[in-house]
Design goal:
The protein is mainly α. The protein has helices at about 15-40, 50-75, 75-85. Helices cover about 65% and strands about 0% of the residues. The protein is elongated, with a radius of gyration of 18 Å.
Length: about 90
């Protein structure tokens, strides 16, 4: 037997969108840092050559990890960004 699915509506949809946008902003900053670290000379090795597809996939993965980290672990920074953009 399949149970029914219920969806709860967010109380303030506008705030959730702003929070997601702030998380993506923070995630994009950390993504840049992680990509620079990954592409540095420290992580380069000729032992196993990397294809262009692997490089592309790794960059996408770093982007997604950065957004996830921002949403889950950077709440104080996101809240500060939201405070900065609130109307006086």
């Amino acid at each position: 037997m399949v149970s029914s699915v219920t969806f709860s509506r967010p109380t303030n949809y506008n705030n959730i969108k702003k929070e997601d946008a702030a998380a993506e902003l923070v995630g994009s900053v950390f993504s840049k840092v992680f990509k620079d670290m990954y592409n540095s000379e420290i992580f380069k090795s000729d032992l196993l050559p990397k294809s262009n597809t692997e490089k592309w996939f790794k960059e996408m993965l770093i982007d997604q990890y950065s957004i996830s980290i921002a949403k889950n672990n950077m709440k104080p920074l996101i809240n500060e960004i939201l405070k900065a953009y609130q109307k006086p």
